[in-house]
Amino acid sequence: MSAPCLSIPREQWPHHPHFPDQVLLLGSHANFLRLSSYLIRAAEAGEDRGGIASSYLSWIAGMRSHEAYEERKLYPYLARRWGVNFDVACAGHELLHRLHDDVVLALSPTTEDRAATPPLAAALRRHDAALAEHLELEEDLVIPCLLALEPEEFHIYTMSSLPALLAQLDT
C-alpha cells in the first residue's frame, strides 16, 4: 500500500472528505480537556475533596481505557500501516501516569483540607498541561493517518481485531 502525505496541517482537517467520521477520538480528547479544566476549577475553589476525588478517579478510569485502546490497537495498526513511530505518544501516557500519582497524593486526606487545596490544584494543573501537550502531539500523529484511510478500510479497522488487521496487512 502506498503511503499518503501524512502531514496534514490541523487547520485543514475539517476540510478533509473523511472528517469528522474518521476522527471520533477528537471528541474524547476535547472531553478529557474539559473535565481536566473542571477539576482544576473545583480544586481552586476549595470544593469538597471527596467529590473531586470521585470525579477525578472516574475520569482517569475512562482515560486509562482510552489509552489501552490506543496502545493495544490504534498505535500498532497505524504503525504497521503507515510506518509511524508512536514511542513519543506512549511516553506521554507514561508521564501522565506519573503525574496521576502526584494528584492521588494531593488528594490524600490531610488534617486540614483547606491547606491541601493549593497542592491539589497545582498537581491537577501539571497533569492538565501534560495532557494538553500529549493530546496535541498524539493528534498530530494519529489524525492524518486516520484521514488517509479510505472509508472501507476505516470501517474494517473499527470492526476487526488487531491480529486480523495485521494479518491482512501482511497479505
From TrEMBL:
Domain called Hemerythrin-like: residue spans: 25-146
Name of a matching Pfam family: Hemerythrin
Gene3D superfamilies: nmb1532 protein domain like
Record-linked InterPro entries: Hemerythrin-like
Domain of life: Bacteria
Name used for this protein in its record: Hemerythrin-like domain-containing protein
